[in-house]
Amino acid sequence: MNISLHRMTLAALAEMLVCLLLPRLFAQTENTAAALSVVFEKPGTRHEWTLPELTAAGFDLPSDWSGYNFLVLDMRASTREKFDLRIKDNGRWWRLMVYPLQDAWLRACIPLQYYRRPDQQGVDVAALGNKSFETFFLGLTGARAALTAISALGVEMADSFRSPRLEIRNIQLTREPIENKLLETGPLVDEFGQWISDNWPGKATGLEQLRTDWRAEEQAFASPIKSDNNNFGYGKFGGFANSSVKPMRATGFFRVEKQDGRWWLVDPEGLPFFSTGANRLDWGWPTFVHKTTFRGRHYNGRENMFAALPADSVPMRNPWLLKGEPGVSFHMWNLLRRHGEDAAWSERWRELVFLRMADWGLNTVPSGAAPALYDNPRAAYSFIIYDLGVQDGVMGMPDVHAPEWEARVDAAARRQCAPRRDDPWLLGYFLGNEPPFPRRESLVVDAILNGPATATRRHLRGWLDDLEAGGDTRERRVAWVYDSYKRFLEIAGAAVRRHDPNHLILGARYASPNEELLRVSRDSDVVSFNCYQKAPAPKTLATIARLLDKPVLVGEFSFGAAGRGMAGMLPDSIVPNHAARADAYQHYLENAAANPAVVGAWWYSWVDEPATGRPDGECYNIGLVDVTDRPYPELIDAMRRTHRRLGDIHAGK
């Protein structure tokens, strides 16, 4: 039974009557004025309401929520930026991060399970932390609330610009889920994937405007470009041809070398190389439109959010990266408008990508790019090894103790590495992405012990039952996680080297690695980690230098500005506008290059994420180009300016 809590006090004797009238009550409340309206005037603004204050506002909430499974809000936010939805339970505040659609009345049915316990469904940090829904997405925080003694609710926006407003006109608790939906008439997204209710300089008003802008960019590439605009001093493979660094040995493949206390990548010609690139260099994330199931969750159709959808004849209804799920990539639709729908469109797109990279000073195609960029490459590229059992494992831990697992890894390396062993453009291989173990070791162990009967579960059980070694303690559980992951790295790394001895192993793109994770990473040639901060994390870099003395590659960093239907980014990567994005890029990359251990840093990502969210919900303004395939000029200018200086900066000049 759902108990409506909107603008009324429920008496126990009237409960049956309320249940009978519930459908009518919903119809009456959808168009009423907001009872709560808050403005986040500056970053860190917080609003809190005790239960008596909420009752006075018309929301009569109980203090014990143990009998409820969902918190339902009818709300409207003027920004896509996240706010923390805070609940004070037993004297302590707990929070989830909520990213609602921008400037639209919507219903958000928030599962209370994410307040009660950390999630264990996901193989990497993003899959564990992001939960998508039709009208919002959640960022999880590892909350562990009993929800038995609620005394207050609150909202907070840590990163607010332009004084965004949040309005709430209905709050209720339910045992069963209520549909997440728009409470107003759509659409929200135009035919090009742009947010309709927002306006900004350069917003496309029609296809002719886009074609004019696209032609202008292509004509600029077709005409001679001034040397001071595109001359970054790169050699054939992207190394610094005019560097003051002493010549290094050329082997025909990429390698690493430490010279005068500074680590360098060395390109196949022996030139010092500092790697710059943009992740997800592909045709854009799809966004859910029709009814579907993804990662075990059912999604209702969202057709009413979109002004137009591609016809069935357009060859991108189900993009390859969704593996058949009913999604639409508006960026890919715009690419087809730009390059045509014939079989050669992707070749024309590929040519434009390499022209842009040369003009912007990018010398690397990071892993996860469109496969077309690996064929006959014109820039260094990296490759992530798939089918190592991570997707089938528990919280990113494959069944590493199963006898058949080693054969599976060897087959995967033979299939993916052997054909590339003689490719001079290949920088190296990643063995994974953001394993979620640090600070979640107990969750990993519990998930395995409560999971299916596997060889790894038997090994874990034997480890914990070994009383002579110390038995079942927190320390032993943590030790087992990293001992098993060390086995993964060693066996996977050996398989890669067996089938391709010529290229680097670049690690597994860690997220906030701890010392335990770094200690088991000694076999990698390069330590890679993703770092969404103002500059590469100095403590992490110092720890890597102390424990490993290996070169470091920053696999992901980014900065975003909320607006145009999109959220900014993670907390330390949000900036107020696009000029600030440009300044932040230059600051980050110059700080990276100044560190003697860092040999590259890659932006995330090539194109903005969809305003209505990628499959896991993310909707960040983090592209070098927007959904219509037009570059952000401020950011591109900063890239050109910065990349000309990187060789001298990393050389210590």
Description:
With 653 residues, this protein is of the alpha/beta class. The chain has a domain at 12-182: Jelly Rolls. Helix content is 28%, strand content 19%. The chain has 17 helices and 27 strands. The strands form seven sheets. A six-stranded antiparallel β-sheet has the order 2-9-4-5-8-7. A hairpin with a 3-residue loop joins strand 7 and strand 8 (136-139). The longest helix has 26 residues, at 474-499. It is globular and about 75 Å long.
Offer a concise description of the structure.
The protein has 653 residues and is of the alpha/beta class. It has 17 helices and 27 strands.
Features of this protein?
653 residues, alpha/beta, Jelly Rolls, 17 helices, disordered N terminus
Topology overview:
Layout (H helix, E strand, L loop, with lengths): L14 H15 L6 E4 L5 E6 H7 L12 E8 L5 E7 L2 E9 L5 E6 L1 H4 L8 H5 E3 L3 E4 L10 E8 L7 E10 L6 E2 L24 H16 L4 H4 L24 E5 L2 E5 L5 E2 L1 E4 L8 E2 L3 E3 L2 E3 L27 E2 L1 H10 L5 H16 L3 E2 L14 E5 L18 H15 L8 E5 L10 H9 L5 H11 L8 H26 L4 E2 L4 E2 L3 H5 L7 E4 L7 H10 L4 E6 L20 H17 L3 E6 L29 H11 L2 H5 L3
Parallel strand pairs: 15-27, 20-21, 21-22, 22-23, 24-25, 25-26, 26-27
Antiparallel strand pairs: 1-10, 2-9, 3-6, 3-10, 4-5, 4-9, 5-8, 6-11, 7-8, 12-13, 13-14, 16-19, 17-18
Helix pairs in contact: 9-12, 10-12, 15-16
